[in-house]
Design goal:
mainly alpha, single chain, 11 helices
């Protein structure tokens, strides 16, 4: 099953992803700065358009890591890309914008359901503390359902885009033809939906277990002090400083987030390869690149010694 096959493959994607992560982080920062400058300059002429550009830049920034991970996964399977990294921007903007709009619409609909849920039993009290203190089991179940619906909508959108993202990462559709936007959208949906859900839930669960272990090692008071220190540094009331728990938390978060991306990319790559059926062109291996030099061909006739050749030449002279 694709869900289980993607797990070991995600580890192969992960170590490659970790190697390129510093370059990817710098590229995303530069991409954000260029987008911000462009948005500010255009905002001087058309103020409303600057908001749209900022939206596209922000939405595409979440898809570019997926494109990089999918490309690394396909290259791990010896599938050669036919495009450059510069061509990631266009599909990232398209898929990022559609995904963001879809999540926003789903969130709006779910928010409407939330308003209907809290209105059951007398509406929303003016005091929020009194509202949360008087929540009934029915309200809790409704809020839980709302959260699950929003989570399912996010997973569904991401699962639908995994195969098109894999195709965009190398510039070719599974049938070997040039990349077509939204081609095979929703392919292997149920299996990829499970992959996305497991990646999110697994990353959150392991991060929670890491925080529990960190608390057991350093104690609750140390972590509380670190949280307060982060708040003070953010507010500018304390100088910048780092502690060992802070560094460990950041490293754990980056690793788990990278694994979640790698697991999703692995699922999309495996689905892409199943759809291709061998139609995609694989990169030549070292065995095919290094071939022995062709040997000179020899005639198939009988060989003659030097004495026989000399005698044949003399017999021709006396004819």
């Amino acid at each position: 099953m694709l869900v289980f096959q993607a797990f070991p493959f995600s580890l192969s994607v992960l170590w490659r992803y970790i190697i390129v992560f510093p370059v990817l982080l710098v590229a995303l920062i530069v991409y954000g700065l260029i987008g911000g400058i462009l948005s500010a300059l255009i905002g001087l002429l058309i103020p409303g358009l600057s908001v749209l550009i900022s939206f596209f830049v922000g939405a595409s920034s979440g898809v570019i890591p997926m494109l990089v991970g999918s490309r690394l996964g396909l290259q791990a399977c010896e599938v050669s890309p036919s495009n450059s990294y510069r061509k990631f921007v266009f599909p990232a903007v398209i898929y990022g914008a559609v995904e963001a709009i879809g999540i926003s619409v789903a969130a709006a609909l779910i928010a409407a359901l939330s308003i209907g849920a809290v209105s059951v039993g007398g509406g929303v009290p003016e005091d929020p503390a009194a509202f949360f203190a008087t929540l009934s089991p029915v309200h809790i179940m409704m809020f839980s359902g709302v959260v699950i619906l929003l989570f399912a909508a996010i997973c569904a959108l991401r699962a639908g885009f995994l195969v098109p993202i894999a195709a965009a990462s190398i510039g070719r559709d599974p049938n070997g033809r040039p990349y077509t936007p939204f081609n095979h959208f929703g392919a292997f949906f149920l299996q990829l939906f499970a992959v996305v859900a497991i990646s999110f839930v697994g990353a959150i669960l392991f991060f929670a277990l890491f925080i529990v272990g960190l608390t057991a090692i350093y104690g609750p008071s140390t972590l509380v002090n670190d949280v307060q220190l982060i708040g003070e540094m953010t507010a500018g009331t304390a100088p910048f400083s780092v502690t060992a728990p802070m560094i460990a938390t950041v490293v754990a978060y980056i690793l788990l987030a990278s694994w979640a991306f790698s697991y999703q990319c692995a699922g999309g790559v495996l689905a892409y390869l199943r759809l291709s059926g061998g139609a995609v062109r694989k990169a030549p291996s070292t065995e095919t690149l290094i071939q022995p030099a062709p040997q000179p061909t020899t005639s198939s006739g009988p060989k003659m010694s030097s004495e026989e050749l000399r005698a044949l030449r003399k017999s021709r002279e006396f004819r």
